[in-house]
Amino acid sequence: MRVFRGHSRPVPAPVALAIGNFDGVHLGHAALVKRLVQVAEGSDLAPTVLTFEPHPREFFSPASAPARLTTLREKLELLGECGVRQTMICPFNAAFAALSASDFVEQVLVRGCRVKHLIIGDDFRFGRGRMGDFGFLQEAGKRLGFAVEAMGSVLADGERVSSSAVRRALLAGDMEHAARLLGRPYIIDGQVSHGQKLGRQIGFATANLRIKHNPLPMTGVFAVEVSGLGAKPLPGVANLGIRPTVGGTRPLLEVHLFDFDRDIYGAHISVRFVHKLRDEQRFPNIDALKAQIAADAAAARAFFEL
Fold first, then answer.
1. Do both 206 and 98 map to the same domain?
2. Cα–Cα distance between 166 and 218 in angstroms, integer?
3. Nearest to 273 by CA among 255, 291, 288, 286
4. Does a structural domain hold residue 171?
5. Whose CB has fewer CB within 10 Å in the chain, the N or C terminal residue?
6. Mean pLDDT, rounded, for 28-48
7. By three-state DSSP, how is residue 153 classified?
């Protein structure tokens, strides 16, 4: 995938374009991108996505912004898997937020993206004061030479699929519900880094991933599957949180893989959260922690029927 930072330099050729935050790249996003790819292939245009960094709500109200479901890298990887060939990432700063709806269309969509066919979600609003909407885009398209269409909501078992719905499912520990909304298990990926080696000392060696999601969309202990270390996913048990028993303060993902003993420091892995076992908690001492980890590992093995 080609990635463009900012809209000051135009993309090389006209595009079919979808706009959105695409946090989580859930079933609704996937449906929008599927339509984007269909339009692009039928019009000999590059299927392109315009997204924002940071999330606009992080810019306007950082204290109350929702937890991110995906890092920027994860989002780009998932969009690429859906068929997106180009992504323009617009820095969402004071100058960008101040653009009027007209300036957004002319500077970003027409000059920067060279849009010929635009697809948006049915609730998309843009421009200073959120004054731009679907009707505004239709009128602008007639004047400036691009077509516009809006995608309706996607339902899963009667529920509207949204990033907010995925967050609620994760926070409730319902991994199965989250997977139905996402179209896959919830995933966090990252590079395995060196830790305190505490897990190895108590008999449960872990692969540690520093987490960029802040705040975390969920915490707890999970049965997981890990990709990136072989031909098929490997089962394990993972703790996602701050590790209060050992005085942790920063989010960390610790993964213990079953029947696995390889040096994987530096490897880039993807961790799929398939079932929640319990909430993260503080234990009175290391022995109590060790006993609980053994119980968690047994519960995860039972889940996988190992």
1. no
2. 11
3. 255
4. no
5. C
6. 97
7. coil
